[in-house]
Every structure is written in C-alpha cells, then in structure tokens.
Amino acid sequence: MIVVMKPGCGNDAVGRVVERAHRLGLREHLSVGEERTIIGLIGDVRKVDVAALEAFPGVERVLRVGHPFKLASRAFHPEDSIVAVNGHSMGGERLAIIAGPCAVESEAGYVEAARLVKEAGAGFLRGGAFKPRTSPYSFQGLRREGLRILARAREETGLPVITEVMSPEDIPAVAEVADVLQVGARNMQNYALLAELGGCGKPVMLKRGMAASIEEWLMAAEYILANGNPRVVLCERGIRTFEGYTRNTLDLSAVALAKTLTHLPVLADPSHGTGRADLVPRMCRAAVAAGADGLMVEVHPNPEEALSDGPQSLLPGVFAELVEALKPLAAAVGRTL
Ligand code: PEP
Ligand code: MN
C-alpha cells in the first residue's frame, strides 16, 4: 500500500501515518523526495481503512497495491475451485445448469416443473421459497411450505436444490433442505447474513448486487470465506444501468474478469440479467463463451400465470432446445454439459 503525502506536509503528518501503521502491525518504507514524501506500508494491509487514512492531515492519496480480498483471490488459490454439492459439483469442466421457476408456487406445479427441467438436462433445481419482492403486496413465497415442496422435488428428481435465504434466522431451516443456499442481489451486502452463512455447513451461491462493483462482490464472498465456509459460488445477474429495454444489463465482462481475480466458480443468470425470455438463450450462449462455469435459468410451465418473473421465464421446451444448443458451444470452449 502506498501513501502519497501532500507537498510540504511536514514531519508530524508523516509521523502520524507511520504511528497508525505501527498500531496495525505494519512496517513502513519512506521515500523522501524533493517535493513530497511517499510512504510504503508493508505487511497485512487488508485491515487498513483506506478512506480513514486518506482523511489524515497531509495525506493526498492512498493506493492499494493488489486486492483487498485474500481467500477469494487467485493469488491465494491459483487453481479453479470445484465446489462439492451433495455428490454433484459446481466449477471445473462440467457446466452447472440450474433451472426452475422463479418461485415455488404450488406442490404439483413445482414438482412438474422440476421433472421437466431435469428431462431437459438441468443439473440443479432452483425455486424461491422466501422471495425478496420490491412490493410488499406481491407474492412473498410459500416460505416453510415452499421448503417442504423443494425437498419433495429433490426426492422425486434426485437433483440438488438451490434456494434463497433472506435473513440469518432462517438459515437453519433453509440449510436443512437446500443443497446450496442462495444470497440474492438485494442481500449481497447484508454482512450479518454473510457472516452467519460462514457456519451454515452448505455451499452458498452469492449473486452480485445490482449496483455492486466487482470488488464489492468479491469482498462479500470474502465475508463467507473468512467466516469459515470455503464453498462459495458467484453469480452475475445483471446490474442497473441507464438502459430501459432490459431489466438489468448482464455484465459478461464481470464474468470474464471475476474468473481472473478469483478461483471461485462464476455463474451467470441471464433471466434476471435481461428480464426478457426472448434474450435468455442468446445470453446463455454468450455467458458460456465468456467463461461462465454455469447458468441459472428461470423456467416455468406456464409463464403467463407465474406469480413472479413470468416475462423472463422460458417454457420447458425452449429450455430443452437451449440445453441442446449449448452442447457444441460448451465443447468449443473446453466444457461439457
Ligand atoms: C432469484 O434468483 O430468485 C432472485 C431473486 O434473483 P436476484 O437476487 O438476482 O434478483
Ligand atoms: Mn426471479
């Protein structure tokens, strides 16, 4: 870390920075130039609060060399991580294809949808029991009853289940049923939830916040890792931009970039990423080409009647065609389906 001091800032200002560095267990290297002094901080600089240090008198700028995350970084773990999911896995050569309705709406409907996506080639089932909705008047999910239905669908299909957990107190109930716990975009920076998921004993899929930088996303993953859970999977689900034709802007450069910064598997969710069923197949192909380790796709047997996210949900037949179309593409980038 480099602290650039203001020209003529005086020795007292330099001394204060050095004193703070020592208190944090760091060493310093001073470079005293004709105009200004530059202080190199050496040691574990992750605990340095950059903004606080920038507010010190005489400090012009603080530059971080390297990344503020460690456990999530490629430097820490150069190989791609493969996350074990109850006899299945995410990351590595085989693409993880997660599919299912946005929400669990009824037992018969969900089990039927689960059978159809399995037949089409999905490797994991999705379905929200606890739904984070913009409006409190919208369908909030079947909650505990939804979890029971998810367990039943897993029994019927043998596919692992991924579902969202919205608050720390629901973790035990969700973890009892889910094979992967999902942190939604809206909760990406719910640090109490992330810390608690460190001890949940199940893999966690962390979706990128809709206004989160890539670094903030990886720091959120770091929370789960640093609290003791090494099984973390990332999912790019689109960010807010000025564009109005799509619900979000699916940031595929974030997928490509995250793959260079972290060893964790990185998935893409073109359903929430575009909000439009007609764009989902193309963006799934683009995500695989960009290096995504898997896809999350919303599929509903009757999208017009869906209680949430119908406009972005594929019909099961369209999803089946998509899976077929992905096979040669996956092979072309050294992946299997
Ligand atoms: C979801 O996948 O069910 C969901 C709510 O997505 P996001 O958190 O990305 O909006
Ligand atoms: Mn949805």
Can you walk through the features of this model?
This protein has helices at 11-23, 50-54, 107-120, 144-157, 171-177, 191-197, 214-226, 252-261, 270-274, 280-289, 316-332, and strands at residues 2-5, 27-32, 37-42, 59-63, 83-85, 88-90, 96-100, 124-126, 161-164, 180-183, 204-207, 232-236, 266-268, 294-298. It has 337 residues and is of the alpha/beta class. The chain has two domains: 2-63, Phospho-2-dehydro-3-deoxyheptonate aldolase, domain 1 (Alpha-Beta Plaits), CATH 3.30.70.1140; 83-332, Alpha-Beta Barrel (TIM Barrel), CATH 3.20.20.70. α3 packs parallel to α4, α3 runs parallel beside α11 (316-332) and α10 runs parallel beside α11 (316-332). The mean pLDDT is 97. The chain binds phosphoenolpyruvate (PEP) and manganese (II) ion (MN). Residues 102, 128, 132, 164, 184-186, 207, 237, 272 line the site of phosphoenolpyruvate (PEP).
Give the SSE layout.
Layout: E1 2-5, H1 11-23, E2 27-32, E3 37-42, H2 50-54, E4 59-63, E5 83-85, E6 88-90, E7 96-100, H3 107-120, E8 124-126, H4 144-157, E9 161-164, H5 171-177, E10 180-183, H6 191-197, E11 204-207, H7 214-226, E12 232-236, H8 252-261, E13 266-268, H9 270-274, H10 280-289, E14 294-298, H11 316-332
Parallel strand pairs: 7-8, 7-14, 8-9, 9-10, 10-11, 11-12, 12-13, 13-14
Antiparallel strand pairs: 1-3, 1-4, 2-3, 5-6
Bound molecules: phosphoenolpyruvate and manganese (II) ion.
Phosphoenolpyruvate binds at residues 102, 128, 132, 164, 184-186, 207, 237, 272.
